[in-house]
Design goal:
Structural class: mainly alpha
Number of helices: 5
Strand order of the largest sheet: 1-2-3
Helix content: 40-55%
Strand content: 5-15%
Number of strands: 3
Largest sheet: 3 strands, parallel
Radius of gyration: 15 Å
Order of helices and strands: EHEHEHHH
Length: 107
């Protein structure tokens, strides 16, 4: 989302089923704060420093989350968001995890 004044950029997603919401990881990797519903691993990605997690899947709760983002937007640090997500889902971490799972399957 980009506000008319161009200063409030953030990612909003309201999906109900998605185990690994890649678009959230991609947006956070660019430093964008996130607004999302509690689906898949979204609750593990989003904390109060990364964005706003909706309480449920209703449009009312998603609207409340957007309102909260608008009010608290200035508190988000894009550098922190980026580093936090890359430390959990960056290419080195992903490769290491994939390698570990592969070896565990071979044993």
């Amino acid at each position: 989302f980009q506000a008319e004044d161009g200063i409030r950029d953030y990612k909003v997603t309201g999906v109900q089923t998605c185990a690994l919401p890649i678009s959230l990881i991609e947006a956070a990797a660019t430093g964008l704060p996130i607004i999302a519903t509690p689906t898949g691993i979204a609750p593990k990605i989003i904390d109060k420093n990364i964005g706003v997690l909706s309480n449920d899947f209703s449009t009312e709760e998603l609207a409340k989350s957007i309102e909260k983002m608008i009010v608290t937007y200035q508190n988000f640090d894009s550098s922190y968001i980026r580093e936090s997500v890359l430390s959990k889902f960056g290419s080195e971490i992903f490769s290491k995890t994939l390698f570990e799972h592969y070896h565990a399957l071979l044993e």
